[in-house]
Design goal:
- This protein is mainly alpha-helical.
- The chain is 71% helix and 0% strand.
- The protein has 2 helices and no strands.
- The relative contact order is 0.05.
- It has a domain of 38 residues.
């Protein structure tokens, strides 16, 4: 009786793992193809903030002077 239950549980877990892996792979493939086709691999955000890459400060000036 216990062996039958164990084999049933093993088969059920194995099948559910395969189904989950297959559906996850399909979902990843469909989401990647739509994003890469429209944005060419570049992530496009919706933030209204301007990105500031550099702000001139005394610390940066000291760093740049020391690096020359």
């Amino acid at each position: 009786m216990k062996e039958e239950r164990r084999s049933f549980v093993k088969k059920t877990l194995g099948a559910s793992a395969l189904v989950a892996a297959g559906s996850a792979t399909a979902a990843m493939a469909s989401s990647n193809s739509s994003k890469s086709a429209s944005s060419n691999g570049v992530v496009i955000g919706k933030s209204p903030k301007k990105e500031i890459l550099y702000k001139k400060t005394a610390q940066w000036e000291a760093f740049y002077k020391a690096s020359y």
